[in-house]
Structures are given as structure tokens and as C-alpha cells.
Amino acid sequence: MRLFEDTGWWRGSNLYIHTSGAYIIHDGQSGCVAFTTGPTEFVSVPSGACTKRSLVGDDAEQASRFYPDLKYLGQFKETYRDPEGVRIRFWSSSQAPEVELPEIL
Fold first, then answer.
1. Which sign does the torsion angle of CA 47, 71, 69, 52 carry?
2. Residue of 43, 13, 18, 19 whose CA lies nearest to 31
3. Global pTM?
């Protein structure tokens, strides 16, 4: 899927799925946005989902090392030197490990 170049706030954001089934984009600045895909709609962020916890080890399910009840899916990254000219890509958890985001401002 090709992503729009004007990605704004979600550059560098991590994508997770909560145990409730809601997807969560965490931008590391202003917080989290939660949504579902069937039907597609914004929903309330589950309580405590974006509250950082103590660092724990990785497991086979790619559970987040930083947030409870979240499974890390990947990160949206800028790619200025991409040979295909694509400015932003989604890197899945199998391509790159979870990056710790700064505290919410």
C-alpha cells in the first residue's frame, strides 16, 4: 500500500493492536489514537493502554515491551533515501524491533 507523502503527525508512530481488538497508533508526543476496522471508526483508547510500564523481555507474540495489553505491529518511518522515491513506509515488527517512544507531552 502506498502511503501519502504528507504524513504529518504519524511519522515515527508505532502501530499496536490491543487485546480488545482495537488498533492503536501511538505518536510519542500527544498520545494515542484508537480505531477499529470492522466497521472503520475511531474508538476510545482502552484505559492504561498508553501508559508506559517497566521494560520487560520480548516474547514470541511480539507483545509490547513498553505498554500493557498491546501487541507491537510496526512503525511508520520516513525514508528520504528510498530508491523508489517513497517518503514513508510501514516497517512491520518482523522487519524492525519496537522503538521506545518518548513520554507523552
1. negative
2. 13
3. 0.77
